[in-house]
Design a protein that fits this description.
This protein has about 325 residues and is of the alpha/beta class. Among the domains are: about 5-85 and about 160-230, Rossmann fold (3-Layer(aba) Sandwich); about 235-300, 2-Layer Sandwich (Alpha-Beta Plaits), CATH 3.30.70. The protein is built from 11 helices and 14 strands. It has helices spanning about 50-55, 80-85, 100-110, 120-125, 145-155, 175-190, 200-205, 225-230, 275-290, 305-315, 315-320; strands spanning about 5-15, 25-35, 40-45, 65-70, 75, 85-90, 160-165, 190-195, 210-215, 215-225, 235-240, 255-260, 265-270, 295-300. A 6-stranded mixed sheet has the order 6-7-8-3-9-10, sandwiched between helices. The longest helix has 16 residues, at about 175-190. It is elongated, with a radius of gyration of 24 Å. This is ABC transporter ATP-binding protein.
């Protein structure tokens, strides 16, 4: 198996406390391997450690412990070589607001030692619908356009590994879709992408693998489809015509309970492979055989968001 493009081992980051406050552990024994050419989505609530982890890889945060290897190089020893091959789209814009779009992109390219290439810069700006704004000062742009500029700056030196830290936070649906298209294009070009997002449908739509982080610790990393299959569940609610005081023995099983004073029969079980739907069908047939009438069935499959919420809320022994 090829060496991971990024290999993080035992990564730690502790911030000293202020005054009488105790130190804060932002990252705790993080192990993570990223495969070349994949889109990896890192999910976690606010304060989980996502931005700290990205900052450590991008040289913006100095780790307390552990090692980071990228492109076969040790970040601590060869940080200039490593950093020149990494792009970062941060959450916040920290640029000269009086600079023009094109000049800002050219500056970012030169900052990483890349030679001037007007044709390449034009290509990047056109791909992000920024070419017509190339002479505009950054302060005159809308929030969505500024977000596009951040992406253009990250792409200016043609990185092999691209970090997108909440790239679509606060932007409209149209821009979000444009960014998804741009990410697809980058993947086709062989760029490895690590994405953090609050919009879990982005991860569900685009990611090859998903990692969940909370309180500085990695809870789970898996292929998205495998995660959906192993942790996904089928949920069904039968709206009964007459309340039940207890569940008949013929349909009793794990994941089945009564709600709404016996007017709703609820089931949660199976997996993302569809096993839960077989149980729902069996319950429906048994209810009909027993003469228990119902007016409606509401069936849904777990989304990646459901899985994420359950992981964070139901595994305190890991996240604590």
């Amino acid at each position: 198996m090829a060496e991971p493009i990024l290999q993080i081992t035992g990564l730690e980051k502790t911030y000293p406390g202020r005054g009488a406050a105790p130190p804060t552990r932002a990252l705790e024994n993080v192990d993570l391997d990223i495969r070349k050419g994949e889109i990896f989505a890192l999910l976690g609530p606010n304060g989980a450690g996502k931005t700290t982890l990205i900052g450590a890889v991008c040289g913006l945060v100095r780790p307390t412990g552990g090692t980071i290897r990228a492109f076969g190089l040790d970040l601590a020893k060869d940080w200039r070589k490593v950093r020149s091959r990494i792009g970062l789209v941060p959450q916040e814009m920290a640029v000269d607001i009086f600079d023009t779009v094109e000049r800002s992109i050219n500056y970012s390219r030169g900052l990483f030692g890349r030679p001037a290439d007007p044709a390449r810069v034009e290509q990047i700006l056109r791909s992000l619908s920024l070419w017509d704004k190339r002479d505009a000062e950054l302060r005159m742009l809308s929030g969505g356009m500024k977000r596009r500029v951040l992406i253009a700056k990250a792409l200016a030196h043609d990185p092999d590994l691209l970090f997108l830290d909440e790239p679509t936070a606060g932007v409209d649906v149209e821009l979000r879709r444009d960014m998804w298209k741009q990410i697809d294009l980058l993947r086709d070009q062989g760029v490895t992408i690590i994405l953090t997002t609050h919009y879990i449908e982005e991860a569900e739509e685009m990611a090859d693998r998903v990692g969940v982080i909370d309180k500085g610790r990695i809870l789970l990393v898996d292929d998205k489809d495998a995660m959906m299959k192993s942790l996904g569940r089928t949920e069904a609610q039968f709206a009964l015509d007459v309340p039940l005081h207890s569940i008949p023995a013929d349909i009793a099983r794990d994941g089945l309970h009564l709600a709404d004073n016996g007017m709703t029969l609820c089931f949660r079980g199976g997996d993302g492979a569809g096993g839960g739907r077989e149980s729902v069908a069996d319950i429906a047939q048994t209810l009909a055989r027993l003469g228990i009438r119902y007016s409606a069935i509401d069936i849904r499959e777990s989304s990646l968001e459901d899985i994420f919420v359950n992981l964070v809320n139901e595994r305190p022994e890991i996240a604590a």
